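Entry 12.
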Amino acid sequence: MTDHRSLVFAVVLFAAPIIVAWYGLSVAAAAGIVILLLLCRWLITLSGMIAPERTPDLELNTISASHFVEKVRWSLDRLGVDYEERSSGGTLGAYFRGRTVPQLKIRTGIVRSVIGNSADILRYMYGRCLPDRPERAAFLEPTAERVAFEQRLDGYGVSLQVWVYYHILEDRELTLHAWGRDDPATPAWQRVVLRALFPFLAFMIRFSFKVNDTHFARSVARIEALMSDIDADLADGRKSLLGGDEINYTDLTFAAFTGLWLMPEGYGGGKADKVRIERDRAPEAMRADIERWVDAFPNAVSWVETLYKDR
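Predicted 3D structure (tokens):
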């Protein structure tokens, strides 16, 4: 648990060769610097045991406008656990640190573990909370039926990423807004970097998500197929998508993902207010898709809006 100390060490490590070259130091002096750096790294390790950094027991690393983050955030809130949320700007973490969100950091004594991938985070939280609060944790139970449905929902979530970026990437200001440029929770330096690196980040998004006409059409087809099935299932008045009256994490998942385009009141629990793309601000083609889906899938839309309102 020495994140900040390790960051300082990394900066010094990268600076060391420049110092050696700048001053024309001898081989012996360079070897001495290496030994000194190794000693410093060892002291950082010891300091993590003797004087560990103060970090929360649970820290959720996020970006404000992320339906996969919303899936985990809503589940943590429903569990009633204490956690701190740390927001980053847009895609900076993914393309410069190889870190996707959501990411859950857990502190146990001097050990700090990291879990990525929303499904894995929910599996961990179920196991963590089950002994002490079995009734609260029951909605996270990963039955075979729920896990299979979750996998299909996660595919819906990936298709929505393609759909969103296909519509907004041409609008630089709107994309930066969605990435947290106007969100005080995003570190100020990251807001500056987002502006400066937008052309590169937009290129990387198009490349990694395959944002093109063909992939967009396939994504829309998958979105509408899932929405159609769920809308038909909800016609019987069920409270949970898999049947019955008890809400489980797959219900929250579908609502969180659908909230990305529906933007119901309460989306993000107040943590996404500064990155919302309201319908009247969306590009015309994006708004047309939303309005078509609202008309085509009234049961699903009403169900999601009610879930946000009530829970």
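Annotation: The chain has a mean pLDDT of 92. Residues 166 and 212 are 7 Å apart (CA to CA).
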